[in-house]
Amino acid sequence: MQLRVFGRTGMQLSVLGFGCGAVGGFMVRGDPAEQERTIARAIAAGVNYFDTAVQYGNGESERNLGRVLQKLKPANVVVGTKVRLPPSEFGNVADTVTSSLEGSLARLGLDRVDIFHLHNPITENGGGSALSVRQVLDDVVPAFERLRQQGKIRFLGMTGVGDTAALRQVIDAGVFDSAQIVYNMLNPSAAEALPQNYPAQDYRRLFDHTNAAGVGVVGIRVLAGGALSGTAERHPIAGPAPEPIGSAKSYEVDVERARRLMPLIEAGFASSLTEAATRFALSHPAMGTILVGMATPQQFDDALAAVEKGPLPQAALERLSALGQGFSGEAR
Question: Environment class of residue 259 by beta-carbon count within 10 Å: exposed (0-12), middle (13-18) or buried (19+)?
Fold first, then answer.
C-alpha cells in the first residue's frame, strides 16, 4: 500500500483510507463479524487511516470501529472523527465541541484521536447548519486548540463543504492541518478549472490552497455517494441516496452522467466505473488519502484492487476531460 505524507503533519497515510460512513452503511449496519474481518484485512493490506463521525448512525460507527480496534489492537493506525455543531449550540461552541469529543473518545475506546474534523458546512456569513468564517476561526479553532493542548486530539481538521470562497479563506488561514475535499470524476474542480457553465459547484482549485497552507487532503465523495457506480440501485444496508454535494442536485442525474463516462471502460482504461473513479481520485498529487464508502466486504476488496492498480494514466485523464466537456451548459 502506497503511503503519502499528509500535509505538514508528518504523518504518512495509506492512499486508501477506511471510510466508516453511513452512506455505504457497513460500519453502521453491517454484521459485526464481517466488520472485524474486513478491518483486519484492511490493516494487513496496509490501510492505516480510519475515518468516522458521531453522526454516522448516532454513534454506531464509532462504537463498532472502537470495538474492532480494541480487539485487534493494531499498531500505528490513525483515527479521525468529527463534530457537527447544532445551530442551537452556536453560542456555546467550546462546551459543545468538548462534550462531543468526550463522547467520541468513549465510544472509540481511545484517549485521543489523531484528527478531529469540523463537520459543519462553512459559508461567508453562516445561517442554518452552516458556520460563518468568523465563527470557525474565532470560536471553533480556539476550542479545538484547547483540546489539542490537553492531548485529546493531535491535528485539527475541517470538512470542505459550503461556499467555495469561505472554504478558501479558512484553508488560507493556516489553522487546520487536514481538510476533507470533494473530488471525483463528475467534479474535478478542486484540482482544475471547470469548463464554462459546468453543472457542479466550482471549488476553484482548492488543492492550490491546501498545498500552499500545508494542509493534508482527505478525498471524499470519490464515488459521488455511489452514483459513480453507474447504477441507482442501492444495497439493503446502504443509506438512502445522499443529498448531492458538489455535483448535480439530483442523484439520478449524477448516475446518468456517470453512465456517459463508460467510454473510459470501453477503451480499456479500467474494468468498471467504480475502479476508474477510485483510481482517478489517486491521480492528483495533492491527495493524501481517499475514502470509499462501502456496504459489503467485497466493495472494500474492489477498492483495494483498484488502488493497487495505481492512478489512471494520462491518456485516461485526457479522455475523461473531453467527456466532461459534454456536461457543460446542462442544468445542475
Answer: middle
